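Researcher: Let's do a round of design. I'm pasting the structure tokens now; please hold your answer until I've finished.
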């Protein structure tokens, strides 16, 4: 899929500096190679605070989110927290994309990984507050509640 995307849109900056690196990073993460995922996202750094699209789906800050997930997978809590915080600091860029809310959960996990339980609890509480009206059987919500309960 990535090769076809690259071929069809060979001159498209967004494809080459957002979509493709993110796809390659996600493939690396699926193969449990967090360092390769971080490496794949290096070309996105100069462009990550931009808004490459508009409309129903806009990949604003998705490379940052995937990098944060890669750092989490690599047990690099401090680096992951920095990346998740970028998303939370720029909520206007992600608008209503799911990563805006999921960044709180990622931040909680990053703080937990660092052993900073007070900050982890606060981030979990923020996530759970955002999701207070969600269906209680959503898998990510169930997992977040269980992780939060373990901190107490």
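Researcher: That's everything. Go ahead.
Model: Designed sequence:
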């Amino acid at each position: 899929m990535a090769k076809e995307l690259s071929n069809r849109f060979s001159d498209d900056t967004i494809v080459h500096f957002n979509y493709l690196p993110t796809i390659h990073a996600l493939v690396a993460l699926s193969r449990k190679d967090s360092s390769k995922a971080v490496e794949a996202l290096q070309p996105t750094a100069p462009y990550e605070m931009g808004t490459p699209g508009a409309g129903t789906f806009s990949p604003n800050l998705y490379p940052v989110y995937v990098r944060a997930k890669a750092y989490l997978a690599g047990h690099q809590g401090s680096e992951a927290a920095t990346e998740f915080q970028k998303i939370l600091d720029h909520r206007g860029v992600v608008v209503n994309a799911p990563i805006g809310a999921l960044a709180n959960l990622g931040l909680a996990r990053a703080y937990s990984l660092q052993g900073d339980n007070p900050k982890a609890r606060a981030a979990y509480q923020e996530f759970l507050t955002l999701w207070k009206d969600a269906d209680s059987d959503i898998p990510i919500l169930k997992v977040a509640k269980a992780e939060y309960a373990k901190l107490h």
